[in-house]
DNA sequence: TCGAGATGATGAG
DNA sequence: TCATCCTCTCGAT
């Protein structure tokens, strides 16, 4: 279920915890046994995220491509080095290189009871694993290392300190550098990867050529990378744009506005780990939004509820097999 | 205990 | 357009 922001955050986690480390690789579930055997004992040399895909480079030009799809998630456990921006976004930890934990994409109190860190599809922390002495003082004989395997783990990557478990990905495969390049070449621009000005022009020119509805184009990863169903609905509402308008009929300034909004929302998403799409929330509203997933959005997941702006009932319809939420009045 | 549903993508027809 | 794959959570029973 993760959209682009999650994948960039996962890449950061990998960058901090796995790059330049020799890893043990296994496939407890068995479905990636051959691939894991090839990765086992190699050193991670780099990580990059493009849209919803993540590429991990190992020595000898071997790459791992992972796409989480709707259900996939990475669970980090152990003595996890947390990105400073991830930590400070939550306000509980502020130093760089701090070790702590992330649960359901939120930084938990370092002395929290669970040290499972999950980014991707929402997950509840399920197991207790080793925690570092400096964060808990609880390190003892009870802490199993490596952590026990729970559920269907496609791929486990393990260093002396950190364990990353991959579950339910749509894609998990090894690639050559040429294959990685070919995969990336098929993807539309990603604001965090491509040159900003060029990326905007590329997006605008593609959208304004297409007869396809703008609501579908935003979900097309060859048009723009990283947008999923939540951001799609929210961006169209923020632009007061009817999702059914063909791309070529959407005024150029609106198309540019959509791109610039995506740049903003992606940056917020990567920093906070939340798909926060409502501007100017009061501290009280912010807390409510954090507590209740459905309070975070203008229209997403609000079918049958009154539009926050005009009071008209928000509608939901199927568009290319996905649910599309929008306000028929604001987005007329 | 069961089944629906979920922030995706792909391949066949 | 439809079926299929992937895994887990939550609400209904």
Description of the molecule:
- The chain is α+β, with helices and mostly antiparallel strands and 332 residues long.
- It has two domains: 4-180, N-terminal domain of MutM-like DNA repair proteins, CATH 3.20.190; 188-326, Helicase, Ruva Protein, domain 3, CATH 1.10.8.
- Helices cover 29% and strands 19% of the residues.
- The strands form four sheets. A five-stranded antiparallel β-sheet has the order 1-9-10-5-8.
- The two termini are 29 Å apart.
- 42% of the residues are buried.
- The model is unreliable at 87-98, 100-116 and 123-142 (pLDDT under 50).
- The protein binds a DNA duplex (13 and 13 nucleotides) through α8.
Structurally, how many domains make up the residues? 2
* Rg, Å, rounded: 21 Å
Q: What fraction of the residues are assigned to beta strands by DSSP?
A: 15-25%
Order of helices and strands: HEHEEEEHEEEHEEEHHHHHHEE
Q: The CATH topology of the largest domain is what?
A: N-terminal domain of MutM-like DNA repair proteins
Which regions are unreliable across 5 or more consecutive residues at pLDDT < 50? 87-98, 100-116, 123-142
Helix content: 25-40%
Strand line-up across the major sheet: 1-9-10-5-8
Shape: globular
Task: Please report the distance between the alpha carbons of the first and last residues.
Answer: 29 Å
| CATH superfamily heading of the largest domain | MutM-like, N-terminal
**How confident is the prediction overall: mean pLDDT?**
83
Instruction: Count the beta strands.
Output: 13
Question: SS-based structural class?
Answer: alpha+beta
């Amino acid at each position: 279920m993760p959209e682009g922001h999650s994948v960039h955050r996962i890449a950061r986690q990998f960058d901090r915890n796995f790059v330049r480390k020799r890893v043990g690789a296994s496939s407890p579930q068995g479905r990636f046994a051959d691939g894991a055997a090839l990765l086992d004992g190699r050193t991670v040399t780099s990580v990059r995220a493009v849209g919803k895909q993540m590429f991990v480079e190992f020595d000898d030009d071997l790459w791992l491509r992972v796409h989480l799809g709707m259900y996939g998630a990475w669970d980090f456990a152990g003595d996890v080095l947390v990105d400073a921006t991830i930590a400070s976004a939550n306000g509980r930890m502020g130093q760089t290189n701090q070790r702590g934990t992330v649960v359901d994409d939120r930084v938990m109190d370092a002395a929290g009871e669970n040290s499972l860190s999950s980014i991707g599809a929402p997950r509840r922390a399920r197991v207790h694993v080793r925690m570092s002495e400096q964060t808990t003082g609880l390190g003892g004989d009870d802490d199993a290392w490596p952590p026990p395997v729970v559920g269907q783990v496609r791929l486990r990557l393990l260093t002396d300190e950190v364990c990353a478990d991959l579950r339910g990905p749509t894609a998990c495969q090894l690639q050559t550098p040429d294959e990685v390049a070919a995969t990336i070449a098929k993807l539309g621009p990603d604001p965090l990867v491509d040159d900003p000005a060029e990326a905007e022009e590329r997006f605008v020119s593609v959208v304004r050529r297409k007869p396809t509805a703008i609501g579908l184009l935003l979900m097309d990863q060859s048009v723009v990378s990283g947008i999923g169903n939540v951001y799609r609905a929210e961006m169209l509402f923020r632009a007061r744009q009817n999702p059914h308008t063909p791309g070529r009929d959407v005024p150029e300034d609106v198309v540019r506005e959509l791109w610039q909004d995506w740049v903003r929302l992606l940056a917020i998403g990567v920093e906070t780990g939340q798909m926060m799409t409502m501007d100017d929330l009061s501290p009280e509203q912010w807390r409510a939004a954090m507590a209740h997933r459905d309070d975070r959005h203008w229209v997403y997941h609000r079918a049958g509820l009154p539009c926050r702006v005009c009071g008209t009932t928000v509608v939901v319809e199927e568009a290319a097999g996905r649910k599309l939420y929008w306000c028929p009045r604001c987005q007329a």
